[in-house]
């Protein structure tokens, strides 16, 4: 499926680089604004590529619906953080301009235009493609007008027993002002006629739907004629709104949802980060409004009333033909037992040398271990900590934690180690976005178990993924380390692609130890031998290695696999490399501000995005180095926040076999001709297709089959 995105991307594409008359030398300024795409518009394009998966028949039907929901979730965060940030800039007169040169005012208008188009297409896909196809598979979303008498009676009983007791309608009058509604909550605005018991004629009410109520409910089989039948909570509330306002006439009931600013702003001179964060979390649910979603049948006067209440304009209004909270449709997978409509399950592989040896320390001593998740299991990482907790020769464990998930086995292992008398230190990043409350709770649990908890460095999020285990062996202390590209989250390790490296290399161990010293103590930056780390050496070293490849000219080679590229100096260095003749392949899942294919500037740079079953999350930097390739795994993307404002780590993969394996993985991504999208010089993305006589090749499927079958 090759998609013509010219019209969709017209507002995204920037003006072509200036050319001069035939016969004259072309001059290109690498720093000129026309050579960069806007960060926010590129972000929107990534979300759109996710939405396009809902149309791809190579994905199972329920998973196509889930892609549609993921698009909604991504858009929610985009408005909560990115759009909210632009509005804050304008509100306080702190407008900043990126390399593309767009002003926030202009950008908000562009975002509105593109987002409206994408969201309209999303509902078209849902209503005219996904729901009809699910209906053919006997999975039905039963509308009110389609309820049989038996179904209507069941819904009435459900409403009275499960919904009515927890819903709190709010009439609007001088003593009942418009309520503060929670961010992204489902609500209804109701038009009323008549007088209530006190003789009031309010004319209007708000009905918030508690988040505890499921947005989808499965109808019991006994009131259906077969298949899987689901009813929206909104349909049930619409059908029985009159029971919320007895004796009043319901003239109309319309669903809406407000998206608020959910970013947290903390000062750098805090005395107590945890206490300050707890205070900020309370305000997140009620930040300034940034987007209003309203059912498209809502009368204009009610819609404008809501816009006025939230201080929003027509630009911020999204009238949708369907549920306003599509993210909650992800529940379909748990409500419908139809395995043939979902991805087939798989068992992540455990390398044979680990599977056949209970002593994981002994395995690592023989040779470093590289795991590629989710194709290979995350269990060996957990087992490493479990063995360390029980091993009497282990003296200390140190670990960074960014996202772990609830009921984390990693956390249980750390607490077990502390209870057994090990010296355990956890560097927890409290400001991991949308996981702040969970991390505060995690910190308390660890402290109660005897773990020393450190909150990283104020002003620099600790995003590095590191474990260090100190073990006594043959009369000396030896360090074992785990370095990763992803979080210590077992759930994510089944959905995100990431690398784990486990090693007992002395220099790596010494480097990791010094990094933990910097995080937990005070002092000058220590000299590091093998690792590159932000905010100190990683940014500078990346540019130096890019420029080194540029010095090799056409013999140079660069491959980056990252999630985003926005850092201006890195992009300038890549432009220099391209101008020198270096072949540059960038596998960038999401945001890319670099403009490929510009004559005289970036014609040697190729950018592709892989979108598939798994979320591409690995960060890898590969440099040709005149036939002696250097390859690094990293926690850092190519963004200012990663390379300048965070604690990040890039680690070399020096073992020849492991480096060749990572190179093979990169080549698989570069060979994908089905789930890869090529960034064009005009800013559009085109999905790759097998050429005539060429076999289909899906990188993720090839890796899944190749690794899990071993």
Automatic annotation (TrEMBL):
Xref: Pfam families: PP_kinase, PP_kinase_C, PP_kinase_C_1, PP_kinase_N
Domain Polyphosphate kinase C-terminal: 359-523, 531-700
Residues binding Mg(2+): 403, 433
One GO term describing the cellular component: polyphosphate kinase complex
GO biological process: polyphosphate biosynthetic process
Enzyme Commission code(s) on record: 2.7.4.1
UniProt: ATP binding residues: 74, 496, 589, 617
Catalytic reaction annotation: [phosphate](n) + ATP = [phosphate](n+1) + ADP
Chain ranges of the Polyphosphate kinase N-terminal domain: 36-141
InterPro entries named among the record's database cross-references: PP_kinase, PP_kinase_C_1, PP_kinase_middle, PP_kinase_middle_dom_sf, PPK_C_dom2, PPK_N_dom, PPK_N_dom_sf
Enzyme class, first EC level, given as a word: transferase
GO terms for MF: ATP binding; metal ion binding; polyphosphate kinase activity
Family the UniProt entry places it in: Belongs to the polyphosphate kinase 1 (PPK1) family.
PANTHER family, per database record: POLYPHOSPHATE KINASE (PTHR30218:SF0)
Protein name stated in the entry: Polyphosphate kinase
Source organism: Marinobacter mobilis
């Amino acid at each position: 499926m090759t998609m013509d995105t010219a019209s969709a991307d017209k507002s995204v594409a920037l003006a072509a680089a200036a050319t001069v008359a035939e016969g004259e030398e072309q001059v290109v300024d690498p720093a000129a604004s026309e050579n960069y795409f806007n960060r926010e518009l590129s972000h929107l394009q990534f979300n759109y590529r996710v939405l396009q998966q809902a149309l791809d028949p190579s994905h199972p039907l329920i998973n196509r619906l889930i892609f549609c929901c993921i698009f909604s979730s991504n858009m929610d965060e985009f408005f909560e953080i990115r759009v909210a940030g632009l509005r804050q800039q304008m509100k306080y007169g702190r407008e900043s301009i990126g390399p593309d040169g767009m002003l926030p005012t202009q950008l908000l208008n562009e975002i509105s235009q593109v987002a409206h188009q994408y969201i309209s297409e999303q509902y078209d896909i849902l209503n005219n493609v996904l729901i009809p196809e699910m209906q053919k598979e006997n999975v039905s979303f039963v509308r009110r007008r389609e309820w049989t008498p038996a179904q209507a009676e069941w819904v009435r009983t459900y409403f009275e027993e499960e919904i009515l007791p927890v819903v709190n309608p709010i009439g609007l009058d001088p003593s009942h002002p418009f309520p503060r509604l929670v961010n992204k909550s489902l609500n209804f605005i109701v038009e009323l006629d008549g007088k209530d018991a006190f003789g009031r004629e309010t004319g209007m009410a708000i009905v918030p739907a508690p988040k505890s109520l499921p947005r989808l409910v499965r109808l019991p089989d006994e009131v259906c004629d077969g298949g899987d039948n689901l009813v929206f909570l909104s349909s049930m509330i619409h059908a029985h709104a009159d029971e919320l306002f007895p004796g009043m006439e319901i003239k109309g009931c319309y669903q809406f949802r407000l998206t608020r600013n959910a970013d947290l702003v903390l000062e750098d001179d805090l005395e107590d980060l945890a206490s300050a964060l707890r205070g900020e979390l309370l305000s997140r649910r009620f930040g300034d409004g940034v987007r209003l979603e309203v059912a498209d049948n809502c009368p204009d006067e009610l819609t404008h009333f809501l816009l006025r209440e939230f201080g929003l304009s027509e630009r911020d209004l999204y009238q949708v033909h369907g549920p306003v909270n599509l993210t909650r449709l992800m529940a379909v997978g748990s409500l419908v037992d139809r395995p043939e409509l979902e991805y087939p399950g798989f068992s992540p592989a455990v390398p044979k040398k680990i599977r056949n040896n209970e002593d994981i320390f002994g395995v690592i001593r023989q040779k470093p271990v590289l795991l590629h998740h989710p194709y290979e299991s995350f269990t060996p990482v957990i087992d490493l900590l479990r063995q360390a907790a029980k091993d009497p020769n282990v003296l200390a464990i140190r670990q960074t934690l960014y996202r772990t998930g609830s009921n984390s086995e990693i956390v249980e292992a750390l607490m077990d180690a502390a209870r057994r008398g090990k010296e355990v230190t956890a560097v927890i990043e409290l400001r991991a976005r949308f996981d702040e409350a969970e991390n505060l709770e995690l910190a308390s649990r660890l402290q109660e178990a005897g773990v020393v908890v450190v909150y990283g460095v104020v002003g620099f999020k600790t995003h590095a993924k590191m474990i260090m285990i100190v073990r006594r062996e043959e009369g000396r202390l030896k360090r074992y380390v785990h370095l990763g590209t992803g979080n210590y989250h077992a759930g994510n390790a089944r959905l995100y692609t990431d690398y784990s490296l486990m090693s007992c290399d002395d220099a790596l161990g010494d480097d990791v130890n010094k990094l933990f010293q910097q995080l937990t103590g005070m002092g000058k930056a220590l000299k590091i031998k093998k690792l590159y780390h932000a905010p100190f050496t990683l940014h500078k070293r990346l540019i130096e290695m890019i420029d080194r490849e540029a010095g090799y000219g056409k013999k140079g080679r660069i491959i980056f696999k990252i999630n985003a590229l926005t850092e201006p100096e890195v992009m300038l260095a890549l432009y220099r490399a391209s101008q020198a003749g270096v072949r540059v392949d960038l596998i960038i899942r999401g945001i890319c501000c670099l403009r490929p294919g510009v004559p005289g500037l970036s014609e040697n740079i190729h950018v592709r995005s892989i979108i598939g079953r798994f979320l591409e999350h690995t960060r890898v930097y590969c440099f040709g180095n005149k036939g002696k390739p250097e390859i690094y795994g990293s926690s850092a993307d190519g963004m200012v926040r990663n390379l300048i404002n965070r604690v990040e780590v890039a680690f070399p993969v020096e073992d020849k076999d492991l480096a060749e394996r990572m190179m093979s993985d990169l080549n698989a991504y570069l060979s994908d001709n089905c789930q890869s999208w090529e960034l064009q010089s005009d800013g559009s993305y085109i999905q790759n297709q097998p050429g005539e006589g060429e076999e289909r090749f899906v990188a993720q499927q090839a890796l899944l089959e190749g690794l899990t079958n071993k």
